[in-house]
Design a protein that fits this description.
single chain; 248 residues; mainly beta; seven-stranded mixed β-sheet; four-stranded antiparallel β-sheet; 13 strands; disordered N terminus; disordered C terminus
């Protein structure tokens, strides 16, 4: 018969060797993490048809006994070189980058495709080769009785990047330029007004680097002193303060 001390030691050892559960952010091409999404997308950049899709998802560290009214997703894009690639610029290809919360199974968005989405886009204060998308998802009338379970992956938004203006006389250059894309943070709000947030997630939730993907391999991306993905687009307090100032 095992002694209490031995049994306790076995339990502690088992706990120490149990993999940590998911809590945080994820970003993948083609599908969410549980849908076997991939971390890199490549395109020959030889046609204007077709599209590539990004799936942003999350898991929370504890249960919420309600369905939140709103979410604010921050997604950063940085490209190799000193300036943002025109192919990733809303100024050149604004109609080619579309956010949606109507996501297919098994990556269905927690909003059920019923959210009102608004998107802000601007060159990041961290450098001219980086851009930031701030996506607000608001549910005006969420279900009265709802809840969010911890450690379960929930989709939040998808970004459909079509291939228009890749070739031809009106092409936006830089499709072949490597890029790093990071799901930088997610704020979860309980009220329609969205103040204050009940929970903020800003780390990878499904393994190291799971909140980042690359385009064309992502080589050579540098923003300020930070090199590589996801370091080149990691959040900084000073940068986030500058972003908030844009809305005052």
């Amino acid at each position: 018969m095992r002694t209490p001390l031995l049994a306790c030691s076995i339990l502690l050892l088992a706990a120490a060797n149990t993999p940590s559960r998911a809590s945080g952010l994820a970003l993948r091409w083609d599908a969410c993490v549980r849908g076997d999404g991939v971390a890199n997308a490549s395109f020959a950049c030889d046609m204007n048809t077709g599209s590539s899709s990004l799936f942003a998802s999350f898991a929370i560290p504890y249960d919420l006994s309600y369905l939140p009214h709103g979410y604010e997703s921050v997604i950063d894009v940085a490209t190799a070189g000193t300036e943002l690639s025109p192919w990733w610029s809303m100024a050149c290809r604004g109609t080619s980058m579309t956010f949606t919360d109507r996501l297919p199974s098994p990556c269905g968005a927690i909003t059920g495709g019923e959210a009102i989405l608004s998107v802000a886009w601007f060159i990041s204060p961290r450098g001219p080769n980086a851009a930031r998308f701030v996506v607000s998802s608001t549910l005006v009338n969420p279900p009265r009785f709802g809840f969010v379970i911890h450690e379960i992956e929930y989709g939040i938004v998808g970004l459909v990047v079509d291939h228009a203006k890749t070739v031809g006389p009106d092409a936006c250059g830089g499709c072949l330029t490597p890029a790093c894309i990071v799901f930088n943070s997610l704020k979860i709000f309980s009220s329609v007004q969205g103040v204050p947030p009940d929970l903020t997630l800003n780390t990878a939730g499904f393994g190291a680097g799971s909140n980042a993907v690359t385009w064309q391999g992502g080589a050579g991306v540098q923003v300020g002193p930070a090199i590589g993905c996801p370091a080149a687009t990691a959040a900084r307090r000073s940068a986030w303060g500058q972003v908030k100032a844009l809305y005052r």
